[in-house]
Automatic annotation (TrEMBL):
InterPro entries: Thiolase, Thiolase-like, Thiolase_C_2, Thiolase_N. Residues 5-209 form the Thiolase N-terminal domain. This is Thiolase family protein. It comes from the Bacteria. Gene3D superfamilies: 3.40.47.10. It comes from Aromatoleum petrolei. Signal peptide: none annotated.
């Protein structure tokens, strides 16, 4: 079996970069990854560009990767443009690995970049409305909102300002989980407070402000049980990863001590399961497949980055990944199991809620955090003795779950 490695990886600070261009952000990430790998752009044999905002927000409907790369020193090689909603960056990374397995090259690049903060915020928010079947919007919305039936939101728990319908869907999932397992709003707030606490020590994070659980609960509401700090913001930023075979590592002269092996890379899509069949969740099935490929189990994972566009997402994914039994994600979060120093630290970067969520760069940003952890270079947020790390990144919505899920297991 071909062994594959991350030789270099880098990211920009995620945040509001109103004064910077998309190619400027992408160039910073690329140069950081090249420096980390100790190679030149001319060493790369194939490149995969991930971005969702190029067409709708910048007007670059086609060939965004070729356009961006033309400005940052990548040309002549095969370039592929990847869109898989919020899982776009992870999908680009997966395809870069596939090019290595196929023998098309021994060094490949995956890069994601987004500029989501534009003067017309409503236009940016409208991006999320394209993350499901647009021919059945009202039907889909009505079906998904039924998940939240049985729990009546208290007075004053609904924002009077516009917000993404995806937050309404997350809230419905929250209420289903609350009704089914007894999960509480306080437990969801505990996830949020934990992630904001982690972000204080991450220099790449969009937000670096602590919240107590009570402050999260008292924050402006979005839609019950979600409050503002529980939600990922609109973010600008870029992240890049250079992946190699054994031969590629030798050719570029990479430092083997810092190369991190990709033990498993899995992409799966939704099924028309019922919400009452969590054992068939796409995230759970993808995780089981990844564990089998890597030859390990949930108990071997030392640190994880999971998709928390809302804090509830982390609870759902910790259950899907097998870190806790169904319904136990909330109590585990409240106990501190997922905090740095706890049983299995989750989102030491601060997660999407704090670090930010520049859609096409998000997945590679998660991988950056895990590589940093496995190399022992995370500073005050370091998870001691981390050898195995797991990433989960979801995108879009079909049926009652993510349209696409990416899982990666890394080891060092």
């Amino acid at each position: 079996m071909t062994r594959l490695y991350i030789a270099g990886i880098a990211m920009t600070v995620f945040g509001r970069h109103l004064e910077r261009s998309l190619h400027d952000l992408a160039g910073e990430a690329l140069q950081g990854a090249l420096k980390d790998a100790g190679c030149a752009a001319s060493d790369i044999g194939a490149a995969y560009y991930s971005g969702m905002t190029n067409g709708p927000l910048q007007g670059q409907i086609s060939v965004p990767g070729q356009v961006i790369f033309s400005k940052i020193g990548i040309e002549r090689i095969p370039v592929f443009n990847v869109e898989n909603a919020c899982a776009s960056g992870s999908s680009a990374f997966h395809l870069a690995l596939q090019s290595l397995k196929a023998g098309a090259t021994d060094v490949a690049l995956a890069i994601g970049a987004e500029k989501m903060n534009i003067p017309d915020k409503a236009r940016a928010m409208a991006l999320f409305e394209g993350g499901w079947d647009v021919s059945r919007v009202e039907e889909n919305y009505a079906t998904l909102m039924k998940m939240g039936e049985g729990i009546t939101p208290p007075p004053g728990s609904e924002s009077d300002r516009p917000y993404s319908r995806f937050m309404s869907i997350y809230a419905a999932m929250c209420r289903w989980h609350m009704r089914t397992y007894g999960t509480t709003q306080r437990q969801i707030a505990a996830v949020c407070a934990k992630n904001h606490g982690h972000s204080v020590h991450n220099p790449y994070s969009q937000f670096r402000k602590t919240f107590t659980i009570d402050e999260v609960l008292a924050a402006p509401p979005i839609t019950y049980p979600i409050t503002l700090p529980m939600c990922a913001p609109l973010s600008d930023g870029a992240a890049a990863a250079i992946v190699c075979t054994e031969e590629g590592l030798k050719r570029i002269g990479a430092d083997r001590r810092r190369a991190v092996e990709v033990a498993a890379s899995v992409i799966r899509s939704f099924s028309h399961r019922s919400i009452d069949e969590p054992e068939k969740a796409v995230g759970r099935l993808a995780a089981l497949q990844a564990y089998e490929i890597a030859g390990i189990g949930p108990g071997d994972i030392d640190v994880a980055e999971v998709h928390d566009a809302s804090a509830m997402g982390e609870i759902i994914q910790t259950e899907n990944l097998g870190f806790v039994d169904p319904g136990q994600g909330g109590p585990a979060a409240e106990r501190g199991d997922f905090t740095i120093g706890g049983r299995i630290p989750i989102n030491p970067s601060g997660g999407l809620e704090s670090k930010g969520h520049p859609l096409g760069a998000t997945g590679i940003g998660q991988l950056y955090e895990l590589v940093t952890q496995l190399r022992g270079e995370a500073g005050a947020r370091q998870v001691e003795g981390a050898r195995h790390a797991m990433q989960e990144n979801g995108g879009g919505l079909q049926g009652v779950e993510e349209a696409a899920v990416a899982i990666h297991i890394l080891r060092h």
